[in-house]
Design a protein that fits this description.
mainly alpha; single chain
């Protein structure tokens, strides 16, 4: 069953395009881009999720990432 998002595809795609544009403008190699993105995810979770929910959110995020790679 597909997950229904409260955000439109346009909202998601626009933000992703902006992030990718910054990575490309900085000519960041793959490892640096992944480190920066990983740190960004960690910061978003740390700054916006309650302490008791952090591990569940991080697991959900990592599961979604792995699932997207299997497609």
């Amino acid at each position: 069953m597909p997950i229904i998002s409260k955000y439109s595809n346009d909202e998601i795609n626009n933000l992703v395009e902006e992030i990718i544009s910054i990575i490309q403008a900085n000519k960041a190699p793959v490892d640096l881009a992944l480190i920066a993105l990983g740190n960004t995810v960690s910061n978003v979770i740390d700054d916006n999720v309650s302490e008791k929910q952090k591990m569940a959110i991080a697991k959900s995020f990592s599961d979604a990432l792995l699932a997207s790679m299997a497609s």
